[in-house]
Every structure is written in C-alpha cells, then in structure tokens.
Amino acid sequence: MTLEDKELEKIKLKIVSDIMTANPDTNGEVKVLKGSEIQEFVTENKFAVIDFYATWCPPCKIMDPITRDLAGTYEGKVAFAKINTDQEREAAMKFQIRYVPTFYLFKEGENVGHFSGAKKKKDFIEIIDKEFFKKD
Q1: Is residue 57 annotated as part of the catalytic site, yes or no?
Q2: Catalytic member of 30, 42, 49, 60
Q3: Parallel, antiparallel, or unpaired for β 102-107 and 110-116?
Q4: What is the pLDDT of residue 2?
C-alpha cells in the first residue's frame, strides 16, 4: 500500500465514522418512539423517517413489513421509527396526522416532506432517495 492509498483509507474510515456518529439509530431496526422522543430522534440522526400508525389500520399493517425491510436496506444511512397515534395523541396533533399511516422525513433535524397511505416499496425508496440523497 502506498502512502496515498493509506491516506485514502484514513479518509474513508473518517467518513464512515462520521456517518455512523451522525446516525446512531441506523441499526436496521424500526425504533418505537414516544411523542416526547421525536425531537431527540430527528436531531441525533442526519436522516430519519417516522411512521405515524395505528394498530387497527389495515394500510399500516401493509406498510409495517415494508418499513422494516427499508430499515435494513438503509442500515447505516437512515434511521426509522414509528409512533402509535392512539397512544401518542399529542404528537399526532402536533404533526397534524389526519390519516394513518403518515410518514415524515427529516434531514438534519428539519422536516423535508411527508406522505400518507400505503406505498409500494419501490415508490418509498424513490421518495427516500429524492429527499435524502437527491436521486431523481
């Protein structure tokens, strides 16, 4: 390995370390949040998706395995969480949740978009890539 290769390797390791530090909840799992934990979750993670759902909601049940799969797909990059709107009514009111599921996307602590209803996995990926990684 040349000196230049060693320097490049150090840079790569630093970038990976920065990404992991900026996204502590990107472990490939969907974290269950309380309303009081939303702000901390979105500020601690560079890229975050929050699923506002209800246990009785059929489209929510459809989206659950898709969201879990995407958490694995974006492991190390995007943090995923879910909030039960029946248990966390104050959070649902704050985010003006009228339909479930509703997904909010946050980049560097700022809301960059949201959508409601069931989506195909490929459509959800397109939304994430566009909002977080600017792939058109």
Answers
A1: yes
A2: 60
A3: antiparallel
A4: 73
CATH fold, domain 3-133, is: Glutaredoxin (3.40.30)
112: nearest Cα among 130, 124, 99: 130
Quick check: is 74 catalytic? no
Q: Which of 111, 128, 105, 124 is closest to 63 using CA atoms? A: 124
Residue 97 scores a pLDDT above 90: yes
Residue 84 and residue 94 in contact, taking contact as beta carbons nearer than 8 Å = no
**Residue extents of the structural domains in the chain:** 3-133
Annotated catalytic residue, options 19, 22, 54, 57? 57
Residue 6's pLDDT band (boundaries 50, 70, 90)?
confident
- The residue ranking higher by pLDDT, 3 or 65, is 65
